[in-house]
Amino acid sequence: MIWDLVPHDVSIFNYVLERLPMSVSAVGGRFLNPAKEDVGFITLSYPGGVVGNIQASWVDTNKMREVVVVGGRKRIVFDDLNNLEKIKIFEKGIAISGDVDSFGEFQLLLRDGDILSPKVEASEPLKNQCAHFLDCVIAGEEPLTGWQAGLDVVRVIAAIERSLQDAGIPVSVD
Question: What is the pTM (predicted TM-score) of this model?
Fold first, then answer.
């Protein structure tokens, strides 16, 4: 499950953040096959306090293909299974009001705003990827995601696997 479902998510995180995570932590469950996990919950820790979470499962019958990016001023949701609104941009956010010395002083200032859904032309991602690769081979150019991006994903997945074997202990990405 880790090697076939998770690389896509890791690749997206690395591409958007333009870096590798410093460490990973992963726990999973073995329900279908006692030899390997078929459910996984993974946390990627990136520089600057950015955290990425991945849930992957062979046993969950609810198919989801979402990437959610949450910031202080906006939230963006990419839903690959939604053919009408693949991307939604929520112009909503939260901020801390005043100095915070204790939990009792912690107050959230909610900001409500519009929800935008830009039009995304329908296309077949795998067909696009293969066409791009062939164009690069013909032109002798480096693909958008070349060998280094692939190697980086393998390094992260290997660290995730080590963390799974060690019951979720954080593992540095070498």
Answer: 0.82
